[in-house]
Write a structure and sequence with these properties.
This protein is of the alpha+beta class. Helices cover 22% and strands 27% of the residues.
Length: 185
């Protein structure tokens, strides 16, 4: 099997790679619903030392920067309550935390979640957090540029491996909201 983007040695449909995914991501793939079949979610096995965006594109090709996205966890505050939110933007962009994200969610304040909160609440490894498999009650903000990609490279829940999914599949995730301008240069 060949990946729809990039040049990877080990490629297979995500339902055949459940043993390489964290429990929440494997469960989400196992129980996948949506217009995109689960078989169209592709797992590429990669070395964890190349997991960070800069080293990943250096190793696997600079063209992947425009076809990959990062998922970050934010903590927003409104009325004294804190809410966890996932934001997905192209890898070459930054989340507009106190602009688009804060306004979309009506938060008074927003900030990046700390390391322990991000991994503890997602059940995923830091540097591999993905929108697939997040708690169903979380808002998942997706930059429109991510959803518009025919295929996007995202985390797999671990630092070993990535998922390649049609951008439109992300818009069907529980809690997903497409936001114009969520990612800024």
């Amino acid at each position: 099997m060949r990946a729809p983007i990039g040049d990877f040695d080990h490629v297979r449909p995500a339902p055949e790679a459940l043993d390489l995914l964290t429990r929440p991501v494997a469960d989400a793939v196992r129980h996948w619903r949506g217009t995109v079949p689960a078989q169209d979610l592709i797992h590429v096995d990669t070395d964890p030392q190349w997991a960070d965006t800069a080293t990943f594109v250096e190793r696997y090709g600079p063209e992947l920067l425009a076809q990959s996205a990062n998922c970050v966890v934010l903590v927003g505050k409104r009325g004294g309550e804190s809410t966890l939110v996932a934001c997905v933007v192209l890898s070459g962009a930054k989340v507009d935390v106190n602009g688009a994200a804060r306004r979309q969610l009506g938060f008074r304040k927003a900030r990046f979640a700390d390391h322990d909160t991000a991994i503890g609440e997602t059940g995923m490894e830091y540097g591999g957090i993905t929108p697939i498999g997040l708690p169903a009650d979380w808002p998942v903000l997706l930059d429109a540029a991510v959803v518009d990609l025919p295929h996007v490279l995202i985390g797999s829940g671990t630092r070993r491996g990535k998922l390649i999914v049609p951008g439109k599949a992300l818009a069907e995730l529980p809690g997903a909201v497409v936001v114009e301008g969520l990612g800024v240069a």
